[in-house]
From TrEMBL:
Gene3D superfamilies: Aldolase class I (3.20.20.70). It comes from the Bacteria. Belongs to the DeoC/FbaB aldolase family. DeoC type 1 subfamily. This is Deoxyribose-phosphate aldolase. It catalyses: 2-deoxy-D-ribose 5-phosphate = D-glyceraldehyde 3-phosphate + acetaldehyde. One of its GO terms (biological process) is deoxyribonucleotide catabolic process. It is found in: Cytoplasm. GO terms for cellular component: cytoplasm. Keywords: Cytoplasm, Lyase, Schiff base. InterPro entries: Aldolase_TIM, DeoC, DeoC/FbaB/LacD_aldolase, DeoC_typeI. The lineage of its organism: Bacteria, Bacillati, Actinomycetota, Actinomycetes, Micrococcales. Pathway: Carbohydrate degradation; 2-deoxy-D-ribose 1-phosphate degradation; D-glyceraldehyde 3-phosphate and acetaldehyde from 2-deoxy-alpha-D-ribose 1-phosphate: step 2/2. Its EC number is 4.1.2.4.
Length: 229
């Protein structure tokens, strides 16, 4: 049975996103204003916009989130770690990294752990003033993996120090599914977060993902989900 959540409670599950290449400063400012009004968990933007978002959200409870190695995950691990450190220094509280998808498809657990650990160490070593490190979410890009590879990627992410595993970038062949969220929740247990992202457009979509085990929702249509648009 789908959980009953108030709009304010549901808002605390949501990372409001603006990650398209064409996202403008005006788009970012508008998203920040809407996010503050709605009381979502975070605003997630490309690294270029982190300083602006961090400044605009100052004094609010809404966190600044960014993406690393996005959207392909094909960067060298050292580059991902540098990108994470730079974003955190600029004010990011949370970073969502993309795994080495090819390694997951090849069953290369050691490579997956190495890649995630590089970013986890960078993220957890330092955070914005007053925060003992940034939270790391690991995007496994479920649309490109079979179930065995999803399990492998999630296990490797947890071993490497991830705080969350996340379904999708929203820029691949498909987004989150209830089945994949449930599989990821079973794999990581109760002490690691699961973020559903990609194709979550309505309140019903969000509630179904939460019922399946998601503890965070990434959405470019946050206001529509919350019924405040």
């Amino acid at each position: 049975m789908t959980r009953t959540l108030s709009t304010a409670e549901l808002a605390q599950y949501i990372d409001a996103t603006a990650l398209k290449a064409e996202t403008s400063e005006a788009d970012v400012r508008r998203l920040v204003a809407e996010a503050r009004q709605a009381g979502v968990k975070s605003v997630c933007v490309n690294p270029r916009w982190v300083p602006l978002v961090s400044a605009e959200l100052a004094g609010s409870d809404v966190l600044t989130c960014t993406v690393i190695g996005f959207p392909l995950g094909a960067n060298a691990s050292e580059v991902k770690a540098f990108e994470a450190r730079q974003a955190i220094e600029a004010g990011a509280h949370e970073v969502d990294m993309v795994i080495d998808v090819a390694a997951a498809r090849a069953g290369d657990r050691a490579r997956l752990v190495e890649d995630v650990r590089a970013v986890a160490e960078a993220a957890h070593a330092a955070g914005p003033a007053g925060q003992g490190g940034a939270l790391l979410k690991v995007i496994v890009e479920t649309a490109l993996l079979d179930d065995d590879a999803i399990v492998l990627a999630c296990e490797a992410a947890v071993e490497a120090g991830a705080d969350f595993v996340k379904t999708s970038t929203g820029f691949s062949t498909a987004g989150a599914t209830v089945e994949h969220v449930a599989l990821m929740r079973r794999t990581v247990g109760e002490h690691v977060g699961v973020k559903a992202s990609g194709g979550v457009r309505t309140r019903e979509d969000a509630l179904a993902m939460i019922e399946a085990g998601a503890t965070r929702i990434g959405a470019s249509s946050a206001l529509a989900i919350l019924g405040t648009d």
